[in-house]
């Protein structure tokens, strides 16, 4: 990424000075000029009303991959804690870094988040790039994009991983466009090509009917958003410590276009926290009608688990969307997943195939769900499920 000032258009208005998070612009003799502290983050280009600041994406043939090193995770935080998806990505980052012979870094952006460094170290980070400022207390597209673009341009990681969450999807696309990086969205698998040492990024394609593996040969860094619950956290590293690199920024609340007035939590989503559930019982079209979800819910309650559903049942209006498991729903990784009347379309498998133990109940012995199930019951779910509930109640009580 290249950035320069068209002095013929520059009016010396100083709007760019207020927008720069790194204090890298001065106005001399009525014209703006970048100092050596410029990171090329591009914040000033958005602020300039006269199109005097120009961003140019580096041509792929001009990118030197050897200048980029390390596997990075961009952290997401909630209520003062590292999000589970960030911890999962740190675990996967260690696997990738080992194959590349490099280290793992976490970009931690927020306000008063330095207390999360020990957890980051225990979860796999060798280094933490720490950016703290009150303007960064809550996620907002503009300041987070500006700050992280500058950090990535300065330290040049080879691989950048971000959770495929609402924040991650918004942020990753902005950063990738700003720095001219290659981005693969909604990955369910990451690996390193043993010969070319490139990141192999696997994701569902064509509506989930195939799994595509994408390689970014030229642009850097190689960027991926990864769905929660498809990677595994590592066992905490005892006594692990991470080097902390503090990145100072100078942000002005007045230059941020969006304001957070109030944070309102989605109460509906809290009713069913599928991604944290250790046991999930899901129903599909095989339950025949919406009233029969009561039977599936009864089995879930007998097991002490949560109620899930396939996309087909959600699309049919049988159950609210926050129960949906699959490519367009929640990606889950429970200890036990029980699929009742679910055939096993690839879209559904993409959301639950990483479960520790999968039990499938289906009357069709050729149903694809049996290809991923650890245990399969071929039979009428309206006979099997009541018997399972009966046995569980006899064993553990009502």
Molecular structure report:
With 398 residues, the protein is of the alpha/beta class. The protein has helices at 15-19, 43-47, 84-100, 117-122, 141-155, 166-179, 267-271, 293-303, 311-315, 346-352, 381-396; strands at residues 2-5, 25-28, 31-34, 53-56, 71-74, 77-78, 81-82, 104-110, 127-132, 159-163, 182-187, 189-192, 199-205, 210-214, 222-226, 243-246, 279-283, 306-309, 336-340, 357-362, 375-378. It folds into three domains: 2-56, Alpha-Beta Plaits (2-Layer Sandwich); 62-251, HUPs (Rossmann fold); 268-396, TPP-binding domain (Rossmann fold), CATH 3.40.50. It has a seven-stranded parallel β-sheet with strand order 11-15-10-5-8-9-16, with helices on both faces. It has a five-stranded parallel β-sheet with strand order 18-17-19-20-21. A three-stranded antiparallel β-sheet has the order 12-13-14. The model has no long low-confidence stretch (mean pLDDT 91). It starts with a strand and ends with a helix.
Can you describe this structure in just a few lines?
With 398 residues, the chain is α/β, with parallel strands linked by helices.
Keywords:
398 residues; alpha/beta; Alpha-Beta Plaits; Rossmann fold; 3 domains; 7-stranded parallel β-sheet; 5-stranded parallel β-sheet; 21 strands; 27% helix
């Amino acid at each position: 990424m290249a950035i320069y000032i068209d002095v013929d258009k520059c009016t010396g208005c100083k709007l760019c000075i207020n927008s720069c998070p790194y204090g890298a612009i001065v106005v001399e003799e009525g014209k703006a000029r970048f100092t050596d502290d410029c990171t090329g983050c591009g914040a000033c280009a958005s602020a300039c009303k006269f199109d005097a600041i120009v961003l140019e994406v580096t041509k792929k043939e001009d990118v030197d991959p050897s200048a980029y090193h390390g596997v990075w995770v961009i952290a997401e935080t909630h209520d003062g804690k590292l999000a589970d998806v960030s911890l999962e990505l740190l675990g996967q980052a260690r696997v990738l870094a080992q194959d590349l012979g490099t280290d793992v870094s976490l970009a931690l952006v927020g306000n008063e988040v330095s207390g999360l460094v020990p957890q980051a170290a225990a979860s796999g980070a060798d280094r933490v790039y720490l950016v703290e400022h009150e303007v960064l207390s809550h996620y907002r597209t503009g300041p987070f994009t500006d700050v992280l673009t500058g950090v990535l341009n300065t330290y040049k990681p080879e691989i950048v991983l971000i959770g495929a969450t609402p924040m991650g999807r918004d942020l990753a696309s902005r950063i990738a466009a700003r720095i001219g990086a290659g981005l693969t969205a909604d990955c369910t698998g990451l690996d390193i090509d043993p010969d070319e040492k490139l990141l192999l990024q696997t994701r569902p394609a064509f509506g989930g009917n195939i799994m595509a593996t994408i390689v970014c040969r030229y642009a850097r860094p190689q960027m991926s958003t990864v769905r929660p619950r498809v990677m595994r956290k590592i066992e905490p590293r005892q006594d692990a410590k991470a080097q902390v690199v503090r990145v100072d920024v100078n942000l002005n609340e007045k230059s941020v276009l969006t304001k957070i007035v109030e944070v309102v939590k989605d109460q509906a989503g809290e009713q069913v926290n599928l991604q944290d559930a250790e046991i999930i019982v899901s129903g599909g079209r095989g339950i025949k009608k919406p009233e029969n979800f009561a039977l599936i819910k009864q089995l879930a309650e007998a097991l002490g688990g949560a109620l899930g559903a396939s996309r087909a049942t959600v699309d049919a209006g049988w159950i609210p969307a926050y129960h949906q498991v699959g490519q367009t729903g929640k990606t889950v990784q429970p200890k036990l997943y029980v699929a009742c009347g679910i055939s096993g379309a690839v879209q559904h498998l993409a959301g639950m195939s990483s479960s520790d133990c999968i039990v499938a109940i289906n009357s069709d012995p050729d149903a694809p769900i049996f290809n991923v199930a650890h245990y399969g019951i071929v039979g009428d779910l309206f006979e099997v499920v009541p018997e399972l509930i009966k046995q569980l109640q006899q064993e553990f009580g009502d």
